[in-house]
Amino acid sequence: MKVTFHKMHGAGNDFIVIDDRALTFPVNDTEFIRRISARRTGVGCDGILLLQPSDAADFRMRFINPDGGEVDMCGNGARCIARFAFDRRAAPARMTFETGAGSVTAEVLDDAVRLDLTPPQDLKLGLDAGLDEPLDFLNTGVEHAVVWVEDPAAVNLPILGKEIRYHRLFAPNGTNANFACVEADGSITMRTYERGVEGETLACGTGAAAVGLIAAERKKVTLPVTVHCAGGYDLVIDSVCGQATLTGGAAYVFEGTVEYGNRI
User: Fold this and answer.
1) Is 74 a residue of the active site?
2) Packed helices 205-217 and 75-87: angle between N→C axes, nearest 10 degrees
3) Alpha carbons 163 and 28: distance in angstroms, whole number
4) CA atoms of 61 and 64, how far apart (whole Å)
5) Which domains are delineated in the chain?
6) Which one of the listed residues 45, 74, 181, 229 is annotated catalytic?
7) CB–CB of 111/104 below 8 Å?
8) φ, ψ at 117 (rounded to 5°)
9) DSSP 135
10) Pick the catalytic residue: 80, 181, 204, 229?
11) Three-state DSSP state, 204
12) 152, 179 in Cβ contact below 8 A?
């Protein structure tokens, strides 16, 4: 069986996007998922996005990490699948789709996609994680710890990110770990150690939302706020009448097929 896919990225966060409305993708084959997600020997991605049918919305989004585990939500991935669904006429420009975190609404704009995020939950400020820097927490569809540092570029992300990702405070599931600072112009610079990827990603939409909303809660910034991601792209976080939004690009890279079945 040949699996047709599109490679897309949202702010440098890259995905294998598949039209799975026929429900034929082998979601339980972890070995296959790891193989096509591998950077050097497969297609390479931060996650696999499946466009599936829904009885309650325009479609259902499923997000599978490169390790084969499934997570509830991905902000950059949601923007990519929204544009993908619109381009394939699976949804109108303003659409609603199911995620593991609940139903979300997105709107495809000329050069960006605006996403209405699920309601943020479980805000915790000033957690004691044994660090020198302040650590906060917010669930913006998935769990995010935010560490406020002077210079995110100076953080030893493979070490400190992993430490926070598996910290006892966030047991048993762990958390994503973000390192951020507020710039002189009121924008935010951040880096993310992503759970499931088990390393740095060039952007994280739900992480940018957590960083922006927590910074506003701490009176560090005024919304809307621009968040600079590690890949050089920007995301915009806002909140209108209590509705948190995430706006940014969703771009195609290439398309192709991979073989599923017999393996050498």
Assistant:
1) yes
2) 130
3) 29
4) 10
5) 2-116+249-259 (3.10.310.10), 121-248 (3.10.310.10)
6) 74
7) no
8) -80, 155
9) E
10) 204
11) coil
12) yes
CA distance 193 to 175: 9
Residues across the chain = 264
Active site (annotated) includes residue 241? no
One digit per residue, the tens of pLDDT, for the chain of length 264 reads 899 999 999 999 999 999 999 999 999 999 999 999 999 999 999 999 999 999 999 999 999 999 999 999 999 999 999 999 999 999 999 999 999 999 999 999 989 999 999 899 999 999 999 988 889 999 999 999 999 999 999 999 999 999 999 999 999 999 999 999 999 999 999 999 999 899 999 999 999 999 999 999 999 999 999 999 999 999 999 998 889 999 999 999 999 999 997 553
Q: Which of 86, 6, 112 is nearest to 50 (CA)?
A: 6
Q: H/E element holding 256?
A: strand 251-259
